[in-house]
Design a protein that fits this description.
Layout (H helix, E strand, L loop, with lengths): L3 E4 L4 E4 L2 E4 L6 E6 L4 H21 L1 E2 L7 E4 L11 E3 L16 E7 L5 E9 L6 E4 L15 E7 L11 E9 H6 L7 E5 L2 E3 L7 E4 L1 H5 L3 E4 L7 E5 L18 E5 L1 E7 L6 E5 L11 E7 L4 E7 L2 E3 L9 E5 L3 H10 L9
Length: 346
């Protein structure tokens, strides 16, 4: 599939919780069509929700690029511009748990034509319809002709349920260098989703509204110094190198750890950061890294996203999550994605 190239602006400022644009400057990015019209989106929603959401329940964790060799460094990150942030926004009050309802699973069809999942998170944007995940949970890097098929997001996913509805991806924004060169320093994506739907009876879709209105939206931070700690939220399901499987992938897992710069082998990248985290890679690709997270509001600032994991001490257990550093290039892609409208499909 041919994807349209666009010039992305790099200006971004915050006024309350709104995303405010500034005059654009040159940057490289791509817009990736997913479900381009309502009819296509309805077909995708029915595929996942049919037969009691059987395809959601039968999906398996995505296993592409889940492990790298890694070395922890003591160097600092070097921002490419001034630091900045977009404030998070709360969703409706909820008394269930201390983990964010913004986190969920992204589902899609892989190159093997089977259903798989990664992790994603809802992020604040002007039209309250934005999901952040890893770039290779959007692009089919095993068959590089376009995006992964039938892409949807299910926030709050737990044991086969869709408590806040299912959200079909309309289009995505990613970095040109990942799309064309597979530069894993740019392994991130922001997906605009249509309003959510549920299926109260076969072939019936009911509108449940915009994503962030239903679950809230995490903030977004860029060009920040390394955070003392970040909270990582994801759906790991794969084994450690020693074969142990501490996670099922059916419920959201949470870890907190310190951050550091990294040198990795196995990925073409030289600007990655790491976090102390025991989460395994399969299923947890796309996990959110939140700074200043508060369990009372269940909100923080997205400042990283898991693209792989590593065993840095050689004990056959993963101890590190790996993310691109969120600099001005990430901000530029986010800024463009934050201003796309999607709308309802039912």
């Amino acid at each position: 599939m041919r994807r349209a190239l666009i010039a992305l602006g790099v200006g971004l400022s915050v006024l309350g919780s709104a995303v405010v644009t500034e005059p654009a400057q040159a940057a490289s990015g791509v817009v990736v069509p997913l479900a381009a019209d309502v009819t296509a989106a309805q077909q995708i929603a029915r595929f996942w929700l049919a037969d009691g959401a059987a395809n959601l329940k039968n999906a398996t964790p995505y296993t592409v690029r889940t492990e790298v060799g890694g070395e922890r460094l003591s160097t600092d990150v070097v921002p490419d511009g001034l630091p900045g942030a977009v404030a998070p926004v709360e969703g409706p009050p909820s008394s269930k748990g201390k983990t964010p309802t913004t986190s969920g699973k992204v589902f899609f069809i892989g190159s093997d034509l089977q259903p798989h999942w990664c992790t994603g998170t809802a992020v604040q944007s002007n039209f309250k319809n934005l999901v952040a995940t890893a770039g290779h949970c959007l692009f089919d890097t095993e068959a590089p002709d376009g995006p992964l098929a039938k892409w949807v997001f299910v926030p709050g996913y737990a044991e086969g349920t869709t408590p806040f509805g299912l959200y079909v991806g309309k289009q995505a924004s990613a970095h040109y260098d990942f799309d064309v060169y597979r530069d894993y320093d740019r392994d991130f994506a922001f997906v605009n989703v249509y309003n959510g739907v549920v299926s109260p009876s076969p072939d019936v879709l009911t509108n449940v509204g915009r994503l962030v209105d239903n679950v809230g939206g995490q903030g977004f931070a860029f060009n920040q110094p390394l955070a003392p700690t970040v909270d990582v939220f994801g759906y790991p399901a794969g084994p450690h190198p020693d074969g142990r499987r501490p996670y099922t992938g059916e419920t959201l897992e949470w870890s907190t750890g310190s951050t550091f710069t990294m040198k990795v082998t196995g990925l073409p990248a030289d600007r990655l950061i790491g976090v102390d985290s025991p989460l395994t890679g399969e299923g947890a690709l796309g996990s959110s890294w939140l700074t200043h997270y508060r369990s009372d509001s269940r909100l923080g600032y997205l400042n990283g996203i898991t693209i792989s994991v590593s065993d840095t001490d050689g004990d056959n257990r993963y101890d590190t999550g790996v993310s691109p550093y969120f600099d001005g290039e990430v901000k530029a892609v986010y800024r463009e994605a934050a201003n796309f409208w999607a709308g309802p499909i039912a």
